[in-house]
Specification:
With 149 residues, this protein is mainly β. It contains no helices and 20 strands. It has one domain: Hexapeptide repeat proteins (UDP N-Acetylglucosamine Acyltransferase, domain 1, 3 Solenoid), CATH 2.160.10. The strands form four sheets. Strands 2-5-8-13-16-18-19-20 form an eight-stranded mixed β-sheet, with no helix packed on it. A five-stranded parallel β-sheet has the order 1-4-7-12-15, with no helix packed on it. A hairpin with a 4-residue loop joins strand 18 and strand 19.
Length: 149
Amino acid sequence: MDVFPFNTFSLGTRSVIEDFCTVNNGVGEVIIGDRTIIGMGNTVIGPVKIGNDVMFAQNIVVSGMNHGYEDVNVPPSIQKEICKQITIADDVWIGANSVITAGVNIGKHSVVGAGSVVTKDIPAFCIAVGNPAKIIKRYNTETLAWEKV
């Protein structure tokens, strides 16, 4: 745990952070809801808000922080940090080895397939896969079925 006292870190009731994870709130708060599982080997760097009943499989990177690179006379490692909130809603499942990039919102009851790189928002009740992640299915409330997009 790389948790600093000057930014919020919150772990909800009955939530679990498994072995070999890194959680860092140094550049932004990390809020994890109730009954959420952060699987083995994950990295969570704020600012990040994770809802209730969320499942992270293994080796996922969720980072609300990037380094600038625009000034070619300065190494990226010492350029300004750029932080954008990541929000993961309730009931989301993120597959192993996925990457969630800064500024992304993932809607309620969505699924991110293993190995995906999420660079854009995913609406509620969608399944997204690939690099970059694309929506392949959406839940239809009229037919009550998951349908291909």
